[in-house]
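I'm stuck. Please check this protein.
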Amino acid sequence: MSYFDNDGCSLHYEDYGHGTPLLLVHGLGSSTRDWEYQIPALSTRHRVIALDVRGHGRSDKPRERYNMGTFADDVAALIEHLGLAPVHLVGISMGGMIGFQLGVERPELLRSLTVVNSGPEVKPKTPRDYVEIAKRWSLSRLLSLESIAKGLGRLLFPHPEQAALRAKIEERWPQNDKRAYLAALDAIIGWGVRERLARITCPTLVVSADRDYTPVAQKQAYVNELPNARLVVIENSRHATPLDQPDRFNTTLLDFIEEVERT
């Protein structure tokens, strides 16, 4: 268990294995624990660093407005603190957004970028988008973290054989700091860097579950706007692909990184 300081905020990270550096960035309301099925597999070939984003896990939860630029600055500070650059960065959901933010602001820090079930903007464009975002914003404030956890568990892991995964969500989600969780949610809504995607020239892998919140076609559209990107679809998966399809995800990621390393 290790910590470093960035701009007065103590941030927790974990460091495993040896080799080319691979940095894992979790999603909203999550922590380093959500990479539990990746770290053992990835650290046999790489130095794997997993970060708790500010407001999450064992990192500080400052009482302030959060924004994607601050999150990306924290990641950049960790890369520089450990002398990792350039790094293979992997981000899921909000972590993928942080990866996009870092990619357009500090592209020299990235050897490759892997984005899982995410996108380069969260901007409502249709009446339905506005309704869905308003609904999520409101329910996140009205419902307890325990209620949100139960709903998420059923949404992400609906099958009987996924009971253990549902139990993980129901146990971990209520451990969030509600104020910090809402601050991070607010940082996501309205954010976007899509108009700057051309700055991300490193090899980029976009992983989409076939049953993610947003359709595969939406990911393919922004993949086409990236200079050096490809899309891989993982079947029988929802938003938490590294948890519900860990073997397929790990193999896809390792194959991609090994290909990048050969070039």
The mean pLDDT is 96. Strands lie at 2-6, 9-16, 21-25, 47-51, 87-92, 110-116, 204-209, 229-234. The chain has ten helices and eight strands.
